[in-house]
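**Protein record**
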Amino acid sequence: MHHTVSVLVENKFGVLARISTLFAARGFNIDSLNVSETEDPAISRMTIVVKGDYSILEQVTKQLNKLVDVIKVNDFNDIEYIERGLALIKINIKKSTRNEVIQLIEIFKSRIIDVSRDSIIVEITGDGDKIRAFIKMV
């Protein structure tokens, strides 16, 4: 089972390294990681997805709360939220298959970001199943 954790941290050099080291040292695998500055430039939000049972999530939360630069840890396990993925995919295409690929892009409600003579870059958003299905089709 996947668990999503939001961590507010001080926006300082080395914080990401300390948190990833915490996960590695305890044998936790990070499935997904996103870090960005909040409206307060002194604070960053880390969104971390971890695979495992609830006891693993509880242990991760306790360990994160022990780190000096961690301000707050939120577990999204008990609240309703929307999860959405984004992928940028470079597709090598030939002139003969270009129209077919463009039709797939339209069917999946994706966007063409860049076009060159022999490739296109597509942006697709949605749940993981939708993104995987698109990749399989192209």
